[in-house]
Amino acid sequence: MNRLELTGLTTRPAQVWGGVRLVPLVREAPVEGLRLHRKVYERLGAGIVELGPRDHYVSYIPHGLVADWSGEGGGPEVPGGGGRSAAYGTQFGGLDAPRTLRLPRPPLHRMAKRRPGDRLRFLPLHLALEGYLALHFGGPSTAWEEWSRRALRDGLSPRAEDAYLGWSVRGLGEALRIFEIHPGQCGVMVYVSDALAAAFVVPHPDDYRLLHATLVEDLYGELVHQYALYGAPVAEFGARLGSGEHIRTLADLRAAARGQERAWEEAHDGLFARELLDSSYGFDRVYRMGTFTLWRFLPPFVRDGVGQHIGETVTDHKGRVAYLKTFRLSDAQIRRGFLLHVLAGAAWELSRAAEVLGSSREELVRRIRAAGFSELLKGNV
Question: Is 80 exceeded by the pLDDT of residue 20?
């Protein structure tokens, strides 16, 4: 599997609010055998995620998702329902705070954790973001003289990336609040200034109704935030039925309207969503859930000017998408991923990597420093 397959999902006409365009995704029938629920945390804020005995990272954690393949349905998990919260937040201001404050150690939780029964709790988008942050995390495997002792000992630790809450993406909250949810809607593609910001898909319409509002709690890239802040309003979808001379009955009108819906669907899949659906990805299996599989994926990091996305997905045994959530990378993040791929492919030897890039060794060193990886190199390089 190297592509995303959205078989069974059809697009509906776009809903536009300022610079935000929402494209509903509707299923003819829900995905059998899988449901998604929200795990509600007591406080919204940062938390520590445990990847292994010695590997942890700190990030914003809005909520958890629980995949249920038991066939029993069920409902969302709420605070106090067993198990400790994976999110910890401290609120400042608005309250009479004590002069000194002793903060408890935030709880540590795994990225994906099996729950009682056929259920798996995982952190939305964290699978994808951790996959990107861990890209060639070990650093140089050979002690080339140009690399610092820290790089050889610790690799790329620590790595950090910036993201913005959906609340800060101008117009997104209003768009999600104002527009109605379609019957059978199981997903949405979010565009900002007609650039694809995120794709979100769930297996059942009831799951989508439950999780629709959580899109404003998700993380979005720097480029998406800038487009929303500085971009102009986008054109609304409008159906054009020609002069109307051929429309004489309600059946003619219905057929013409459906023809416009098909035209919009073809235009959307072939133009708007092309960067997501036509790209190839590297998939990493995270967990097998009966006949379903949870994956995270990374793009090829090709410098072709097309937007690229990281994400996570649950597919059935035929490779069809039951769940999907994506994060659009900024140009700088794509450049960092591309540079790390080249360095790792050249076994971290600067001269070989410079030859692959068609540049000089000095230019490669400059690019490494500009990408924020200065600590990997010795000071005199």
Answer: yes
Distance of CA 264 to the CA centre of its chain: 25
Over its C-alpha atoms, the chain yields an Rg (Å, rounded) of 23
pLDDT of residue 85: 26
Residue type, 176: L
Nearest CA-CA partner of 291 in 319, 263, 271, 333: 319
The b-or-e profile of 57-67 (16+ CB within 10 A means b, else e) is bebbbbbbbbb
Name the most confidently modeled range: 49-53, 60-64, 79-83, 87-91. 60-64
Query: For residue 18, which of 239, 179, 184 has the smallest C-alpha distance?
Result: 179
Please indicate whether residue 146 or residue 72 has the higher confidence score (pLDDT): 146
pLDDT at residue 43, rounded to an integer: 57
Nearest to 228 by CA among 198, 200, 191: 191
154-163, 232-241, 248-257, 306-315: least confident range: 232-241
Is the Cα torsion angle 345, 351, 352, 355 positive or negative in sign? positive
> Closest Cα to residue 119, out of 67, 53, 56, 177?
67
Q: Rounded CA gap, 198 and 217, in Å? A: 13
Contacts of 250 (CB under 8 A, 6+ apart): none
Element (H, E) at 372: none
171-195 as b/e, with b when 16 or more CB fall inside 10 Å? bbbebbeebeebebbbbbbbbbbbb
Contact 310, 128 (CB under 8 A): yes
Give the type of residue at 202: V
User: Which pair of tokens denotes residue 78?
Assistant: 């709420």
Q: What is the mean pLDDT of residues 197-226?
A: 94
Question: Distance (Å, rounded) from C-alpha 193 to C-alpha 91?
Answer: 33
Classify burial at 376, counting beta carbons within 10 Å of its beta carbon; exposed 0-12, middle 13-18, buried 19 or more.
buried
pLDDT at 134: 87
